[in-house]
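Sorry to interrupt, but I need a hand with the structure work. Can you supply me with one protein entry, sequence and fold together? No commentary is needed, just the two lines. Leave the record below and I will have a look.
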Amino acid sequence: MQNANLQKATFGAGCFWGVEAAFRQVKGVNSTVVGYTGGHFENPTYEDVCRGEWH
């Protein structure tokens, strides 16, 4: 869906699954995407991050 009124917001949080669930309940939120920031892996997995291999 193309909509000129859509805007993007980026948030940092601890357990992002809980934060994502909360944002999905907010009126006006179109979609959510979770992931990791920092490091040099393009798409680190949970296991990569837990092993400390993403940075």
Notes: DSSP finds two helices and no strands in the chain. The two ends are 35 Å apart (CA to CA).
